[in-house]
């Protein structure tokens, strides 16, 4: 059972990693851009129609990355369903890392609310997930062939990892403060789906050559809203708010007189309360003994018992993976470079990207070198067709690794593997949001002259009277 869980967990991390940021869509005024960066516009005066939606056509992205010697074994299992660890070196506690972050818009709907201050109001339903794993080669080898461990070793299984998934129901609102400055906010109600977190803080192997026996000691903690995979089924994906949460995001944009565009956002700052049936396990002195170096089901059962026998069911809180994003850009006719810095606030990781966007009429392509702060490079590319009332995009944050994802690594520099793809469609409908001089009616026109938007009123209290 433990072996199956280990393989399944690592397979899911490798095959479902989603970077979710999709940097090629930043500063594009697409529907995705407007929902992800709360201060961004989605409508263009005299061109766009009043309502925008993806009509249940998901905005989705898939991006996987794994770094370390384990790359060969994981890709071998994905391609051939054969779990091979014979080629993985052990004895030096060499580390592997995998990263995951998903963001799928199942439904989005946005309204051009008022010409005055360019107010926009939006509603969305997303499915999100985040995960990280830092593990040793020994962890992968342990449940495959324990007979390879033939000497004493300290910290062979030390590592940590987490995974969290949830539904996010959001309301977005943005408005202009003046001609150059805008603010936006995103308020969200969350419904947790799954949560797992493990931290092995101490471990050792004592090898008795005469008795051909291994003694494995370890200390660690584990939290989850489920213990066994059989507890999960299709109903798990249905939002029921048994694990409720809240999050907030806010951002601003500013356009300088010289044409520079700046954007900053804090995203998904929130928490989830996992219900009282969740599991919290502390193992202060775990010990597993393997006789005759035949791991088999006995080893798996011992590890499982060491954790389950210490299980305590109670509620706990977890934080969402909040991010801080910053963008600076300036347009040069058909070419627009975008320099982006994105950093996780609580969890490890982040990206530095340079998105080079080339546009011709309604068509555009982008090329984006991306440096991940966990120590590897990616190359993103994107093709987009966009009119004021229709948009379609297809791209990848890691196009080179995606092309080679299903190939077996043959050289040491292929210890990093990745795969990525994202796409989406957005459609606007209703009457055109024309400029007041071109229309007999315009949302916000005809209101009181001194009527102000929400943020204008909020920041107005700080002005001197």
TrEMBL record:
Pfam families tied to this protein: DUF5723
InterPro entries: DUF5723
Domain DUF5723: 94-397
Origin: domain of life: Bacteria
Name of protein: DUF5723 domain-containing protein
Taxonomic lineage: Bacteria, Pseudomonadati, Bacteroidota, Sphingobacteriia, Sphingobacteriales
């Amino acid at each position: 059972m433990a072996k199956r869980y280990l393989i399944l967990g690592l397979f899911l991390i490798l095959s479902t990693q989603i970077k979710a940021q999709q940097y090629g869509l930043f500063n594009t005024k697409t529907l995705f851009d407007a929902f992800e960066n709360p201060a961004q516009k989605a409508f263009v005066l005299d061109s766009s129609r009043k309502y925008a939606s993806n009509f249940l056509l998901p905005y989705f992205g898939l991006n996987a990355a794994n770094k370390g010697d384990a790359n060969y074994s994981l890709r071998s299992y994905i391609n051939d369903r054969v779990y091979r660890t014979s080629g993985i070196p052990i004895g030096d506690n060499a580390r592997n890392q995998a990263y995951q972050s998903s963001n799928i818009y199942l439904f989005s709907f946005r309204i051009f609310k008022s010409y005055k201050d360019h107010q926009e109001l939006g509603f969305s339903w997303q499915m999100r997930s985040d995960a990280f794993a830092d593990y040793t080669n020994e962890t992968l080898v342990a449940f495959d062939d324990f007979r390879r461990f033939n000497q004493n070793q300290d910290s062979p299984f030390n590592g940590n990892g987490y995974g969290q998934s949830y539904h996010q129901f959001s309301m977005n609102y943005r408005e202009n403060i003046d001609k150059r400055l805008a603010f936006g906010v995103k308020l969200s109600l969350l419904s947790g789906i799954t949560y797992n977190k493990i931290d092995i803080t101490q471990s050792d192997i004592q090898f008795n050559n005469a008795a051909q026996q291994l003694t494995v000691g370890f200390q660690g903690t584990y939290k989850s809203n489920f213990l066994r995979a059989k507890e999960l089924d299709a109903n798990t994906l249905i939002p029921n708010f048994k694990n409720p949460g809240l999050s907030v995001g806010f951002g601003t944009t500013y356009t300088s007189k010289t044409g520079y565009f700046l954007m900053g956002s804090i995203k998904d700052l929130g928490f989830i309360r996992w219900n009282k049936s969740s599991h919290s396990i502390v193992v202060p002195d775990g010990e597993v003994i393997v006789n005759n170096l035949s791991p088999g089901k006995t080893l798996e059962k011992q590890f499982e018992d060491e954790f389950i026998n210490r299980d305590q069911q109670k509620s706990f809180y977890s934080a969402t993976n909040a991010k801080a994003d910053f963008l600076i850009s300036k347009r040069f006719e058909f070419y627009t470079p975008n320099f982006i810095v994105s950093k996780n606030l609580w969890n490890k990781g982040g990206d530095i990207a340079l998105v080079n966007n080339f546009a011709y009429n309604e068509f555009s392509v982008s090329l984006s070198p991306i440096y991940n702060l966990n120590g590897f490079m990616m190359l993103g590319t994107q093709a987009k067709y966009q009119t004021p009332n229709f948009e379609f995009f297809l791209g990848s944050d890691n196009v080179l690794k995606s092309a080679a994802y299903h190939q077996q690594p043959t050289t040491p520099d292929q210890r990093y593997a990745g795969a990525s793809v994202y796409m989406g469609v957005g459609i606007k409908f209703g009457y055109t949001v024309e400029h007041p001089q071109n229309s007999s009616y315009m949302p916000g026109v005809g209101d009181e002259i001194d009527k102000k938007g929400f943020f204008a009123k909020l920041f107005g209290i700080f002005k001197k009277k």
